[in-house]
Amino acid sequence: MSPPPEATSPPDATTQPPKRYASQVRDEQARRTRRAIVTAAHDLFLTQGYAATTIDGIAEAAHVSRRTVFNSVGGKVALLKLAFDWAIVGDDEPIALADRPAIKAILAESDPRKALMLWVQTVTDVVARTTPLGEVLIAAADIDPAAAQLLAEASRNRMFGATMFIRYLASLDGLAVGMTEQRAAELCWALTDGHLYRLLVAQRSWSTADFNRWLSDSLGAALLPT
Questions:
Q1: Could you read off the pLDDT of 65-79 as tens digits, one per residue?
Q2: How far apart are CA 137 and CA 51, in angstroms?
Q3: Cβ atoms within 10 A of the Cβ of 113, count?
């Protein structure tokens, strides 16, 4: 006679991993594969340029098949976008820039000048990470309409970020008399473009600290109340 259901021994957990654990393992494997592919694409874009980089070359550098590249990420523009997105935040964690500690620190600061300095520091950190790949994106935009759309999107996102910061600065009464939020956001958008960073830091050998100081002083003089 079979034992009653309540007396039946439970299955041995060591012989059959829970489905959730198996799913986590697969997700982590997929993430490692995607990271290897995007890292390979990032490095090849920088060393060879966008036009000369091929999916086959990326697959070889990442030690995966061509099909895996497409299935994991997509084509060249998708690879460039993901590499650029990761450069913006500094890693591949699924956490938006707005939810990062640096942005939270800005929004917790009630002194307009200190908030501006924190924002400049954050933006400069982003620019330092994205400038090399940004040059690739600019070149790619000349030959690939999808890359041109990506470049335009990056510009819109920078404008959105500048606008959000200026709104916060205005909420602190941190704008000079006669300075509109739109004009202030446009100044922030223009002066935090990677081109200035390339000119002063990469070409003229300014230190990042010097660049931050100059940018903070310049924006402070233009935006903040006297």
A1: 999 999 999 999 999
A2: 11
A3: 16
Q: Is the pLDDT of residue 17 over 50?
A: yes
Q: Taking a C-beta distance cutoff of 8 angstroms, is the pair 181, 166 a contact?
A: yes
Looking at residue 6, its pLDDT comes to: 47
Other residues' Cβ atoms within 10 Å of the Cβ of residue 181: 13
The amino acid that residue 39 corresponds to is T
- Report helix, strand or coil for 105: helix
Q: How many CB atoms lie within 10 A of CB 47?
A: 9
Q: What are phi and psi of 17, to 5 degrees?
A: -55, 145
Q: For residue 41, give the H/E element and its range.
A: helix 19-48
What length is written for the chain?
226
Phi-psi region of 132 (alpha: psi -120 to 50; beta: other; left: phi over 0): alpha
Q: Computed from CA positions of residues 122, 124, 128, 134, in that sequence, does the dihedral angle turn out positive or negative?
A: positive
Per-residue pLDDT for 49 more than 80? yes
pLDDT at residue 25, rounded to an integer? 78
pTM of the model: 0.86
Residue type, 183: R
Round to whole Å and give the CA distance between 216 and 226: 15
